[in-house]
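Exercise 7b. Backbone tokens:
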């Protein structure tokens, strides 16, 4: 963090996350950016994609961000389920960048079309129960993200795939969803639905009704003749495909555990985000998945960290209340005229003026005190001095607040590093605005690749 030193248990106690060696390693085929929502995963994934492409890799970035900010930052009108080439990449050695945004339903449709004959596929795609399942079943988005990852990897068209994971309520959902949906589609529930077709006639429907009566929630409320007919039609059409979902879920897990995969946990320096990151780190370790490290995003810094919050606040109070007794020579020594309590000097603070950071001085303040000749010609302006004092006090209070933010972020980060000293960390300084073009993504990439994330 710029302007602050890592204390015991802080960044000095953990390894630095080096991004460029990961991007340059041709053995790295998949990078998964994961973490809770709102921490900058999409921007991180896009920045990694730009940097990797401009270092000679053939990259595709798969995002699940519905805000479409990735498309805008890459100069593309819109992203869809098909990878689109990004222009303006200054690549070398054949480096290219493609980007796409997951279409959950379309990916599910592609699975059906790939594993069923045309007539059966049409029956499934037109089935109301399937349409509801493919559009909104819990975990479908996470599952389809992994399905799409498997499809991209199988094509072997790109030598690096970067995945921006869904913004789940819990980071653990990303790992659970493939198996959860796979279990749903080839587990006890489906076997229950298959029973009527196997038993046949009224006995089968009676069996189905008994089984369904044990279910609760929304599905139970929807039960009716038409619904049951749709379910039966869906089950009959999907019968030969159920096992494939579990098979592909298992294959995806093996792909994520492979040495060519690198997980980057992305977090903001906030308590909830780092708690989620800690859960994910522990889960990845339990599943034997390769964690590259933690990207701590949007970290605040200060070029005037030598001025503490307490000193800045005290100086602001002195200026606001006119307590100038501890000031230096000020106007009295420089101008040769007596200073009055009604004209607080903008040169005075509670701290030594040499220790005051440049950021805490108002830009409107003169570089040097006016000479006696100038004063004789123009006189002094008490109102101007008071305005400058108020401005300086305001800047000092802003600085004090910034230093409190820095201290809070450092404490939060240090709690994480104390719990997980084995996890490599890089910090990325917060930018003054949103990233909206390739230049902004390059700037993020530079920060990611600099020691401790740069500034």
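Sequence design result:
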């Amino acid at each position: 963090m710029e302007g602050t030193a890592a204390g015991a248990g802080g960044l000095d106690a953990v390894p630095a996350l080096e991004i460029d060696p990961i991007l340059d390693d041709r053995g790295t085929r998949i990078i998964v950016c994961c973490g809770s929502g709102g921490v900058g995963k999409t921007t991180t994934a896009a920045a990694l994609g730009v940097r990797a492409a401009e270092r000679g890799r053939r990259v595709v970035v798969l995002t699940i961000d519905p805000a479409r900010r990735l498309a805008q930052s890459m100069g593309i009108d819109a992203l869809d389920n098909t990878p689109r080439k990004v222009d303006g990449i200054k690549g070398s050695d054949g480096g290219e960048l493609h980007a796409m945004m997951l279409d959950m339903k379309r990916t599910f449709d592609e699975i059906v079309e790939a594993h069923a004959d045309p007539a059966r596929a049409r029956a499934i795609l037109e089935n109301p129960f399937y349409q509801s399942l493919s559009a909104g079943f819990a975990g479908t988005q996470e599952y389809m993200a992994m399905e799409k990852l498997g499809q991209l990897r199988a094509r072997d068209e790109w030598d690096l795939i970067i995945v921006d994971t869904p913004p789940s309520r819990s980071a653990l959902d990303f790992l659970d969803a493939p198996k959860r949906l796979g279990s749903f589609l080839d587990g006890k529930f489906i076997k229950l639905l298959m029973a009527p077709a196997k038993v046949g006639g009224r006995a089968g429907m009676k069996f189905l009704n008994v089984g369904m009566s044990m279910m609760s929630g929304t599905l139970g409320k929807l039960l009716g003749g038409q619904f049951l007919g749709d379910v039966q039609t869906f089950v009959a059409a999907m019968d030969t495909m159920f096992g494939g979902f579990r098979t592909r879920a298992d294959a995806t897990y093996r792909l994520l555990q492979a040495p060519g995969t690198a997980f980057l946990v992305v977090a903001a320096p906030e308590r909830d985000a780092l708690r989620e990151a800690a859960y994910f780190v522990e889960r990845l370790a339990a599943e034997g998945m390769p964690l590259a490290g933690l990207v701590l995003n949007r970290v605040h810094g200060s070029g005037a960290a030598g001025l503490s919050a307490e000193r800045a606040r005290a100086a602001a109070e002195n200026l606001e209340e006119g307590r100038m007794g501890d000031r230096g020579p000020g106007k009295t020594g420089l101008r040769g005229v007596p200073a009055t309590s009604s004209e607080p000097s903008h040169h005075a603070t509670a701290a030594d003026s040499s220790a005051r950071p440049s950021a805490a001085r108002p830009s409107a303040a003169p570089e040097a005190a006016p000479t006696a000749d100038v004063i004789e010609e123009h006189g002094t302006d008490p109102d101007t001095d008071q305005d400058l004092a108020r401005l300086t006090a305001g800047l000092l209070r802003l600085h004090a607040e910034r230093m409190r933010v820095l201290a809070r972020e450092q404490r939060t980060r240090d709690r994480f590093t104390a719990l997980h000293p084995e996890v490599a960390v890089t910090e990325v300084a917060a930018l003054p605005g949103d990233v909206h073009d390739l230049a902004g993504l390059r700037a993020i990439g530079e920060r990611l690749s600099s020691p401790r994330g740069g500034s």
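Instructor comment: Residues 1-8, 197-223, 324-379 have pLDDT under 50 and may be disordered. The radius of gyration is 30 Å.
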